[in-house]
Amino acid sequence: MLFDTHAHLDDRAFDADRKELISGLDMLVMNPGCSLASSRNADALSRQYPHIYAAVGSHPDAADEVNEDVLEEYRKLCKLNPKIKAIGEIGLDYHYEDIPREIQLQAFRAQMALAQELDLPVIVHEREAHADGMAVVDEFPAVKGVFHCYSGSLEMAKELIKRGWYIGFTGVLTFKNAKKAVEVAANIPLDRLVLETDCPYMAPEPFRGKRNDPGKLCRMAEKLAEIRGLPVEEVARITTENGKRLYRI
Ligand code: NI
Asked: Averaged over 216-242, what is the pLDDT?
């Protein structure tokens, strides 16, 4: 069985067929929130479907909504629903910088502190912000989690693993120009690696550019099996165990 450790099934891209799609999935799925509104939707999906788990948090794109009231809402959701297994997705994105860096950093730190308080793992989105991302990780040594859709170097991945973190890979692994992600996936300990679709984005080959969904995670498992020289069933078993350990399921 596979575990999609990062899927946005609450996204409007699934409005037309969400129920059929989710009901047809024979796998585990973690649905992180991107904002307070999306976290509430993730919470609702996890209550509705036994195989869906949720995380709550504000993505760097929504960092400007984070304040004491929003953090209190996340705290309440976590206490009321045992299927909320993480704080996320949170982090830093310096690619577009629609939200100023200082505000992103403030929101990231506030939500890392919340994860520490609630003793939950975190789901980190970090794009073109490697140094600041690692600096915040080091400010909260008690907090562990996953760097999802990993885009850093092998050296940085090793530093994260040393600190007890996991590394998440998307359909990028299957892209022809994915040398860096493939290098990291080939060289880190297998017990720290998790697979994710990040759907509706990041569809693997041969679906690149189309809507992604958790049913396409098998393409990532096949690619990882090829990279590591292992049977695909073994990769599925190990990465699912890793996801359960990461989110304490
Ligand atoms: Ni995401």
From this structure: 97
